[in-house]
Amino acid sequence: MGTAIEWTDTVWNPVTGCSKVSEGCRNCYAFALHDMRHKAFQEGKKLPQQYAKPFSKIQLFPDRLVQPMKWKKSKRVFVNSMADLFHNDVPDDFIWNVFDIMAKSPQHTFQVLTKRPDRMMEMLSGRYWRDLGTSARPYFARIIKGEQREGDMPFLPNVWLGTSVENQKAADERVQYLLETPAAVRFLSCEPLLGQVDLEFTVQFEHPDNEGYGVQAIKGIDWIIVGGESGPNARPMHSDWVESLRDQCEEYGVPFFFKQWGEWVPFNQMDTFPGHETRTVKIGKQRAGRLLDGQEWNQFPDRGERDAN
Ligand code: SF4
Question: Per-residue pLDDT averaged across 232-250, rounded?
């Protein structure tokens, strides 16, 4: 299954359904799309059985688990574009099945994005701690500090873990959990970006056996995606917010991917209106495009990147 999402090649949806957790969910495209089809299903339209239930009902599709193992060509795979894998109603065992499939499909790079990084951290850290015992602790400390050594691999090398950050509140709440989760690549999806986000704050880590230490949030991040909102009720995105994240990425050497402006574009980003006016105008996603300061930003992380061959 192909996708129009610019930062991935395909989507894989062994789970569908979710519930809203924060401002970034207000105009959730998956919610709107599923419930529109659910309504049509109820009106008698011929649609797949999954639309018999509303989006608020979490549905598991065990038969879809093996799909990536059948794709021979290497792809970037966005895991659950129509759900949040770490929603409370997805059982632990099913999540481990998803991770087992990812481990058995090293030809692909899997991109797991969640607004529930607390559960992701609890599950992934918990398993490593349990399996590796106290010997995992020094590994863990080195991973957080970005000082991995050969042999330090208590995570899947082809799985990128990310959390959504739509504003500062989400960054303050979620980034710490992401940084505490062992991962080959940790990323942020700042879409829809709804405000200024400063990632230079310090995250404090504490462990029972040591005194704890702090690290700047952005230093634990390997990739940042930024995008504006699309759809009928889309909220505008200020160019200052985007440029600030781009500048933070440049300063700390973090790859930056600008996905789209969304429905609204600032005047100062339009060819037809060059100037300093930062007010936004609603012109539609296609026309608004994805140029920031006159260029595309399509950077990807080096760490964990697929071999182009
Ligand atoms: S967490 Fe994601 S899938 Fe779930 S409601 Fe929010 S935006 Fe939609």
Answer: 95
103-114, pLDDT tens digit by residue? 889 899 999 999
Residues in contact with ligand 1 (CB, 6 Å cut-off): 18, 20-21, 25, 28, 30-31, 83-84, 115
| DSSP per-residue codes, 31-64 | HHHHHHHHHHHHTT----GGGGS-TTS-EE-GGG
| pLDDT at position 203 over 80 | yes
Point out the ligand 1 atom lying closest to the alpha carbon of residue 82: 3
User: Of 73, 119, 78, 70, which is closest to residue 96 (Cα–Cα)?
Assistant: 119
Residue count (the chain): 309
Enumerate the domain spans of the chain: 115-288
Residue 191: Cβ-neighbour burial (10 angstroms; 0-12, 13-18, 19+) = buried
Span 133-152, pLDDT tens digits: 444 445 545 555 555 555 44
H helix intervals, the chain: 29-42, 67-70, 92-103, 117-132, 136-144, 168-179, 239-252, 285-288
Ligand 1 centroid to Cα of residue 152, in Å, is 33
